[in-house]
Amino acid sequence: MSRWLVRFGYDGTGFAGWARQPGLRTVEGVLREGIPRTGVASTVEAAGLAVASRTDRGVSARANVLTLASGLPATAVLRTLNGIAPDIFFTAICPVPDDFSARAATGRWYRYFEPAEGHALERWKQAAARLQGEIDVRSFGRDVPTEGPALRTIDAVQVRRSGSRWFVVDVRAPSFVWGMVRKLIAALRRVDEGTLSLARFEGALHGEHRLTLPLAEPEGLVLWEVLYPFQWSREWGGPNRGQARYLADLVWHARVREAIGRELSGSRSAAEERRGR
Fold it and tell me: What count of other Cβ atoms lies within 10 Å of the Cβ of residue 80?
C-alpha cells in the first residue's frame, strides 16, 4: 500500500457539500462508497481517506486535494477513481509519506464569480485592496469565537472583469475560517452599493467593531487550488466517456436554463423574435 496525494474537482451543485450526511449526496459519501466498490482499496478504513478542504453545499472545486492509500500504481489510481462518479474529476497524483496530512498545504486559493451587471469595478477594487495582511475575521466567518481577536492572514484579493458578464474575485490565504470568502464577498457588495463605508469596512477588519453580514450564494464559489511545495508526478489525461457526457449535459442544461430565463423575463431581442416566427 502506497499513500497518495490526489487533486480532484467537482460541480458542487450536485452535492450537499463535502462531509457525509445521512440521506444526502455528498462528495465524501460518494467516495466512501466508491473506493471499495471500484477496488481502489479494500475498505474505506484501509484507504485512510482525508481531505484538504471541506466545501459547503453548492460550492464547487477545481482543485481540492485528498490523501488515500492504495495498492494500485499511480496511473491506475487516477483511472479507477475517475470511474466512481461522472461529476467528480481526479486530475493529478503524487506519492507522499504515510504520515503526510492533506491539510498541511502552504496556501489555498478561492475564486468567486460575481455577475457584473449593476456593479462598479473600481469600488470593488478599492474595497479589495484593504484585504491584505492580518485581519480580524470575527465579522467574516461562521461560528467564530467572539471573546477576543480571531486573526487570519490574507495574501491577496484581486478583482477583475471577465468578459461583459462577470467579475472574478480571487482570494488567496494560508487558511480560512468557515464561510469566510462568502462573507467577504457580501461585504464587498455592500461597499459597492454604498451601505457599508470603506472606513467602517476597514474598522471591522481591524477588529474595532463587528459587522452582521450574510453569506453570498455558494454557487458562485470555487475552491480553485490548494498549494503544496512540490510538483504533481502524474496528471490525468481525461475526461473519460462518462465524464464527457456529464460535461456536455452540464453545458446543455445551462444554455437551456438561460434561454428559458430570457423568455420569462421578456428579454428576447427583436432579431430573435423574427427568427423565432
Answer: 18
State the Cα–Cα distance between residues 14 and 114, nearest whole angstrom: 20
If one looks up domain 107-223 in CATH, what number appears? Answer: 3.30.70.660
Q: What is the pLDDT of residues 120-134, one digit of tens each?
A: 999 999 999 999 999
Encode pLDDT of 160-181 as tens digits.
999 889 999 999 999 999 999 9
* 56 flagged as catalytic: yes
CATH, domain range 2-104: 3.30.70.580
In angstroms, rounded to a whole number, what is the distance separating the alpha carbons of residues 61 and 221?
8
Among candidate residues 11, 56, 155, 249, the one labeled active-site is 56
